[in-house]
């Protein structure tokens, strides 16, 4: 009732910083059609196409298993614990023309046949140890044996179809990095705002009085600076203070950046105190 799998171990050759594709053949030796699904313990690391389908009696289907490119090459002695699971169910006469989704929805778990496939990391093609490591893999596939993992693997789930180029994934990662960089600045702004709002009304009144004194002091300094500049420009023989006052225009003059900032701060304090 089950299907035949070739190979029974998926071997991926280094380097893993680029995408690697291997072919998995699912053959139906039965006299009736069979529906299959391919699942893995690392659905984000692999792309499988197709990850489900139908195999006619005596036919086989080739499934492409793509290992996504890794950011860094794993150590040479790293062991892969990823697994694949191929599930198959017979398609009876009453479901001959039904779609695959309805076949799997109404199937009983006891009628599902499962076969596990182990993933192994292999050295680059042509490396001295490549042939030595490939030999046990083929022999175990011929004998139908599989190594027992040291720890229990995570639950199997269906990997998604091949979604696109590596460039699209890189742009998504850059957007995620930008969002993570914005978080500290937003947190710092929130902390400063919280410190300001935690001040008591008495402290705010004291800050308001100090700001008013600072504004008055800045106005005096600005007036004295204007008089000194006028005197130095006339070579020390400029008009007296009384004449200077008469010549000074009465219209509105520009406001410095410091005074503007202080006025904004005062407006914020007044709005917080009285509104």
What attributes characterize this protein structure?
alpha+beta; elongated; four-stranded antiparallel beta sheet; Immunoglobulin-like; about 280 residues; five-stranded mixed beta sheet; 9 strands
Describe the model.
The structure is a single chain. The protein has helices spanning 100-105, 130-143, 166-197, 201-233, 241-247, 257-274; strands at 4-6, 9-13, 20-27, 34-40, 46-49, 52-55, 60-67, 83-90, 113-122. The relative contact order is 0.13. With 275 residues, the protein is α+β, with helices and mostly antiparallel strands. The strands form two sheets. A five-stranded mixed beta sheet has the order 2-9-8-4-6. A four-stranded antiparallel beta sheet has the order 1-3-7-5, with no helix packed on it. Helices cover 40% and strands 21% of the residues. Helix 4 runs antiparallel to helix 6. The protein has six helices and nine strands; from the N terminus they run ββββββββαβααααα. The protein folds into two domains: 4-163, Sandwich (Immunoglobulin-like), CATH 2.60.40.10; 173-274, no CATH class.
